């Protein structure tokens, strides 16, 4: 979810669900150890519970980065062993790490020794033409011995050569049964399933077999699906915000962010579109949703830098069911 689930996206999602865990986009150890730490790690207190996802393959660097995440207040640090992009592979991390189980174990141990918060791993069920369940079972068993108790299982293989990241999310077949079997084989571990889930019925089916479900693209493109999560999965019966209330809640946030970051020394700074672009899917499935998206994407209106653009988009939805 690089370039997708930034702090503005997470703040928007938090208006829809109070309890669902939010994850950062993947941040590389190099970006933290040799780059702008506040830019990568700063987040809004309202985002809790929030996890920092790291990309890297050097145990010492991951330990330092995990420590930074803990110091900045993250609730969890997650090691990405699932991203198949060639850019990530050149850095020798992501899905290609599944070829080096002992190295991943060393990374997890180093991170566990450095922090007191949870260290989790996100991974695929196999790589390239390795389709045996034994492969992912042995991977999870080895990493669990290093101190990891939570595994987020993207239930597809990662094809490291020949497929784009988008194709890697669509072409390799989903094998949810592998994740289900992991829970049977490792009942003491927390197994969370990821990949292709789009409906509440599908989530409910998964939860009969595993401990949790992670949504990626569906949460981004159809975010209001999450409005039922607090009551349905967390036992919180407090009334969820309507779509209109979510829009209205984001306006003061955008004003505050523009005041803090709206201008830079180089004349750039935060643009309204940096926040509103994450909200385009809020009205998915409703009449006039296209008009809502068009208003939020209007370059002339965006150039004015006025957060009340959201109210103009909302007006095009009237009358609207909650």
UniProtKB/TrEMBL annotation:
Residue numbers marked as site, Interacts with tRNA: 80, 166, 169, 290, 293
Enzyme Commission number(s) from the entry: 1.3.1.91
Binding-site residues for FMN, renumbered to this chain: 53, 122, 154, 194-196, 216-217
Example GO molecular function: tRNA-dihydrouridine20 synthase activity
Domain DUS-like FMN-binding positions: 1-303
Enzyme class at the top of the EC tree: oxidoreductase
Cofactor: FMN
Keywords attached to this entry: Flavoprotein, FMN, NADP, Oxidoreductase, RNA-binding, tRNA processing, tRNA-binding
Positions annotated as active site in the UniProt record: 83
Keyword RNA-binding: yes
Catalytic activity: 5,6-dihydrouridine(20) in tRNA + NADP(+) = uridine(20) in tRNA + NADPH + H(+); 5,6-dihydrouridine(20a) in tRNA + NADP(+) = uridine(20a) in tRNA + NADPH + H(+); 5,6-dihydrouridine(20a) in tRNA + NAD(+) = uridine(20a) in tRNA + NADH + H(+); 5,6-dihydrouridine(20) in tRNA + NAD(+) = uridine(20) in tRNA + NADH + H(+)
Function comment: Catalyzes the synthesis of 5,6-dihydrouridine (D), a modified base found in the D-loop of most tRNAs, via the reduction of the C5-C6 double bond in target uridines. Specifically modifies U20 and U20a in tRNAs.
HAMAP family for this protein: DusA_subfam (MF_02041)
Family: Belongs to the Dus family. DusA subfamily.
Name of the protein described by the UniProt record: tRNA-dihydrouridine(20/20a) synthase
Organism of this sequence: Herminiimonas glaciei
Designated gene of the protein: dusA
């Amino acid at each position: 979810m690089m370039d997708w689930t930034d702090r503005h996206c997470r703040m928007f999602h938090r208006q829809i669900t109070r309890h669902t865990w939010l994850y950062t986009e993947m941040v590389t150890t190099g970006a933290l150890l040799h780059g702008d730490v506040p830019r990568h790690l700063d987040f809004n207190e309202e985002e809790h519970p929030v996890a920092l996802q790291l990309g890297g393959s050097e145990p010492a660097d991951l330990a330092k980065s995990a420590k930074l995440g803990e110091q900045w207040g993250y609730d969890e640090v997650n090691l990405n062993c699932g991203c198949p992009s060639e850019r990530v592979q050149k850095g020798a991390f992501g899905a290609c790490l599944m070829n080096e189980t002992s190295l991943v174990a060393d990374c997890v141990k180093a991170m566990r020794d450095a922090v007191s918060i949870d260290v989790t791993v996100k991974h695929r069920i196999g790589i390239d033409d390795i389709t045996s369940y034994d492969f992912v079972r042995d991977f999870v068993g080895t990493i669990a011995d290093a101190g990891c108790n939570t595994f987020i299982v993207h239930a597809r293989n990662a094809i490291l050569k020949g497929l784009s990241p988008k194709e890697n999310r669509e072409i390799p077949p989903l094998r949810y049964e592998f994740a289900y079997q992991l829970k049977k084989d490792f009942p003491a571990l927390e197994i969370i399933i990821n990949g292709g889930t789009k409906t509440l019925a599908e989530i409910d089916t998964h939860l009969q077999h595993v401990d949790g479900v992670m949504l990626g693209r569906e949460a981004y493109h159809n975010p209001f699906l999450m409005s039922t999560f607090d009551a349905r999965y967390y036992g919180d019966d407090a009334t969820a915000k309507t779509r209109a209330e979510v829009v209205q809640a984001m306006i003061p946030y955008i004003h505050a962010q523009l005041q803090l970051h709206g201008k830079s020394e180089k004349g750039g700074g935060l643009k309204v579109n940096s926040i509103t672009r994450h909200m385009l899917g809020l009205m998915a499935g409703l009449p006039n949703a296209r008009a809502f998206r068009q208003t939020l994407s209007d370059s002339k209106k965006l150039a004015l830098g006025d957060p009340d653009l959201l109210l103009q988009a909302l007006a095009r939805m009237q009358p609207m069911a909650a």
